Amino acid sequence: MADPAQSTPRISGVRSFARREHTRDLNGVNAAIAGIPFDTGASYRTGARFGPEAIRSASVLLREWDPVLEVATLEDLRIVDWGDVGLTPGDAELAVSQIAEQLAPIAESGAVPLGLGGDHLVALGELRALAATAGPLGLILLDSHADTWDAYMGQRFFHGTPFKRAVEEGLIDPSRSLLAGMRGPSYSAADLEDARALGFEVLPYPELAAGGADAYGELARERAGDGPCFLSFDIDFVDPAFAPATGTPEVGGPSSAEALGYVRSLRDIDFRGFDVVEVSPPYDGPGQVTSLLAANVAYTMLGLLALRRRG
Predict the structure, then answer these.
(1) What are the tens digits of pLDDT across the range 34-73?
(2) How do strand 112-117 and strand 79-84 relate by DSSP bridges?
(3) What is the pTM of this model?
(4) In this structure, how many other beta carbons lie within 10 angstroms of the beta carbon of residue 47?
(5) Burial 171-193 (b: 16+ CB within 10 A, else e)
(6) Could you give the CA distance from residue 8 to residue 4 in angstroms, rounded to a whole number?
(7) Domains of the chain with CATH codes
(8) What is the number of alpha carbons within 13 Å of residue 188 lying toward its C-beta?
(9) pLDDT tens digit sequence for 173-188
(10) Contact, 17 vs 55, CB < 8 A?
(11) Are 140 and 232 in contact (CB under 8 A)?
């Protein structure tokens, strides 16, 4: 698809992701962008239901050629904006089922879904849809929290529990998974130890930063092996100085440039799905820096897909 910006200015037109075609026709599609406007699972700041809209608006600045990955992402892949999942606000458990049901056709078509959240609970619905066709997936997670709690104030379906539920449901294989970026105050030392007890490799942010992006990429490939994987990026992985608009900000994280470097390091992994979650636009500044970063994270994920297809 030719760059629409060459015929009409970016300030015009309907806001689809990177100005790709908005359609649910999946014939010949490599990747489908799906908005998941849901934040009933949030425990602190809400607003992530407006994340897909804001990320799409910021994505008009994306262009065909990625000069760092050296791939023509938007040219080499047939990418469409599939639109938004229809959800029932206020019922977290029902919403997870709705996400899984509506994303199933994308997974079944062979296209790779890229979800725009939405709070992190949406990942459970995405994983249900993907695992139904691909089997258990390895989880590669960049996040300041492991999201493997069992419950919060009696609620088993909220944005801190999706990966505990996913393990229980057999959707992910912890032995092929890597959770990285965890930092900040926690309720107890058990928070990360419980994730390890489930079989996850956990790389707290101080260790991630000490090793750098190249070492992280090598570890992720070693954990993932040759099997299908899912890459989930919680925007609170990034320091709130660079990405303030999120539900549970944690200081002391990577810059925007460093965060993109960690995503770029994940080459040669068989990703069957991606998401970028927890963007809460009401907390962004007038420059929309969080949404801009989220759009570029999503673009970089698509670049990884384009590189793998080319290779």
Answers:
(1) 999 999 999 889 999 999 999 999 999 999 999 999 999 9
(2) unpaired
(3) 0.96
(4) 20
(5) bbbbebbbbbbbbeeeeeeebbe
(6) 6
(7) 15-310 (3.40.800.10)
(8) 5
(9) 999 999 999 999 988 8
(10) yes
(11) yes
